[in-house]
Design goal:
The chain is of the alpha+beta class and 92 residues long. The protein has a two-stranded antiparallel ribbon. A hairpin with a 7-residue loop joins strand 1 and strand 2.
Length: 92
């Protein structure tokens, strides 16, 4: 059985990697998660050895999107192949 906290992190990484411009509002829309959940999970990814970059798109400080720069110890192919199981973990 997969851990829901860990599953949420992997799902967010997958979602960022598959969005052209993964802003917090875009992630909220696609995942249906609250802003604070997305922000908390983004912060937690650093502790997993994952590098997520924020790319500024506009003149405002927080106008931009995220990009997975380095998956660290996580295999993105495994995440993609097990996405349904990861999502099901959150439904329990």
């Amino acid at each position: 059985m997969l851990n829901p906290t860990f599953s949420r992190r992997l799902i967010l990484m997958h979602e960022i990697a598959h969005h052209e411009k993964a802003s917090v509002p875009a992630l909220m829309k696609s995942l249906g998660w609250p802003r604070r959940t997305i922000q908390d999970v983004l912060k937690a990814l650093i502790g997993m050895g994952v590098q997520v970059e924020f790319i500024e798109d506009g003149v405002r400080h927080n106008d931009g999107h995220y990009r997975v720069a380095d998956w660290g110890p996580i295999d993105p192919i495994w995440v993609r192949n097990n996405l349904d199981n990861l999502l099901a973990t959150l439904e329990r």
